[in-house]
Amino acid sequence: MENQKIADIFNRIADLLDIRGDNPFRIRSYRAAARTIEDLPENLAGAAGEGKDLTDLPGIGKDLAAKIAEIVQSGRLKFLDDLKKTLPPGLPELLRLEGVGPKKVKLFYEEAGIDSIDSLDRAARAGRLRGLDRMGEKTEEKIVRAIESYRKTAGRFRLDTGFAAAEEITAYLEPAADDLVPAGSLRRRRETVGDLDILAVTRDGPGLMERFVGQPETTAVLAQGSTRSAVRVENGLQVDLRVMAREEFGSALLYFTGSKAHNIALRRRGRERGLKVSEYGIFRGEKRIAGETEEECYRALGLPWIPPELRENRGEIEAAEQNRLPRLIEPEAIRGDLQMHSTASDGKESVLEMARAAEKRGYRYIAITDHSQAVRVAGGLNEKELAEHLKEIDKAGKKCPGIRILKGVEVDILADGTLDLQDEILRECEVVVASIHYNFNLPEKEMTRRIVRGLKNPQVNIFGHPTGRLLLQREPYSFDFEEVVKAAVGEGVTLEINAHPARLDLNDVLARRAKELGARLVIDTDAHSSLQLGLMEYGVFTARRAWLEKDDVINTYPLKKLLDVLNRPLR
DNA sequence: GGACTCCTGTCCTAGTGCTCCAAAGCACT
User: Fold this and answer.
1) For A45, A294, A367, A379, which has the most beta carbons within 10 A of its beta carbon?
2) Domain at A248-321: CATH architecture
3) Nucleotide with the nearest C1' to A378 CA
């Protein structure tokens, strides 16, 4: 069992208790435990199985340890099952709406009988909320907007959720298949996935299908046939399995990888050449001329193989035809990570622990960039504390000679565009990441001015998570992207692709545009624990979707060249 | 519910801005 699954159960309990108005400290305990479990480098179910004492973990006492044991053993938790019965099933979902928290959910339910997104939507549109305590017209409008935004992304899942599900399912199916490849938007590494398409080759189709629909995760069988079956699994994701013959595997993979726009363009191209392109192969008349591999399918269409990340019909077919597809950046090209946190602010591990973990990954350098004072929730540092912390970083550096630990900070760009720390201390840093964590709601012009002013500070090297969006959760703040990129280019500021799968910010489209405008990029994990250093691959996926090559990304550079770009001396 | 300790009772992550409504909920990692 994945740690995430146990953490999800605790978070669900916290949500329900929150809506019921339970003891806030009890609620916090569940959330704290969930976070501890998410960040755990080892598998909790395994540890529990070996008889390890789970109460040694921070925030896990006797009660929660027993609950974990129950989850590991039975896959369920009676406490949660009982708790669920006390409230309508649609209530927790309301918490996903921006601007709606437990207090409002409780109010809506108890005073207006609202028990789902749909009923809330109807009530808000009918103006039936404004009679409630502290509710007015503005709040109604805000809720309608929040629901619209939520619905745009409902039914989609973050890429990491898709990966975890795909891994679990393919591992389970492996004994019954010769070949097994997840296709669809997951293979194209889109930031979110709708459903999961898995392709298989096997000599025993019915046996594989039996195993697929019977997997322990299944909550509903949507379809079951000899070549295609579909199920819904525990977290709501729909998974399709398709069994193909060996000779059509390539064309099927091509078809099911998509995107739809890419496929349409390929089929049109085929038709122009007198060919019929389908998931079963490429045919001239009745004769199959390609189908077993993707390479031969593309070749039959007069094209080199196109990496899945580019298959969006955004110019990749023309580029392939003219042999000028980009040489996309590879994960192995990454030499360091320029944004991460330590215990000095809200990270889970010390500078030294982060450095040693990064060294193990083969990195040559990292930057420790803890928060500045404005981010109080994260224990951000003021000038004096940062000065002390920089000394600590130097000390850690001496203990870990195999990797260069750059002194850094993630400083907030305040609402007026000034920075949250004085220039003198920023000058002591080798990497200054400037980011926005507050006042997201400025009008576009004001926000643009604010960012540009922030980036014009000569100490700033990197603009962190530039749009501020959280996937499936929070829209980006509004600003003039082109103007900001131009300012960044002019000031020598590098734009971040934040690799955290909840952010992926810049996204693929904007990162590509930034490159076109002459910007340099960096891929950072923003890790809050050593485990999260592994999120780098998600940033690389996004960079590949943005057509980026190795040289577009500064943390592929050797240290000397990197410092040169950062305009800092090599010490 | 956990941690710490006073072994039953107490405290627990700080504080600010925003919004929208008139005192408080929500968001911020």
Assistant:
1) A367
2) 2-Layer Sandwich (3.30)
3) B29
pLDDT in tens, A58-97: 888 889 999 999 998 888 899 999 999 999 988 998 998 8
Residue A37, CB, less than 7 Å from strand B? no
Domain covering A3-152 assigned CATH 1.10.150.110 in the classification: yes
A272 neighbors A303 (Cβ within 8 angstroms): no
Give residue for tokens 């010490």.
A571
Three-state DSSP state, A182: strand
Q: Which nucleotide is nearest to A146 (CA to C1')?
A: B26
* Angle at A366 (CA atoms; ends A365, A369), nearest 5 degrees: 155
CA of A91 to C1' of B20 (A): 23
For the CA atoms of A488, A490, A492, A496, what is the dihedral angle to 10 degrees? 20
Cα–Cα dist A522/A406, whole Å: 15
Residue A30 CA and nucleotide B8 C1' are separated, in Å, by 23
The ranges of chain A with pLDDT < 70 are 41, 570-571
Which of strand B's nucleotides are less than 7 A from any protein C-beta? 1-3, 11-29
Q: Are the C-beta atoms of residues A313 and A320 closer than 8 Å to each other?
A: no
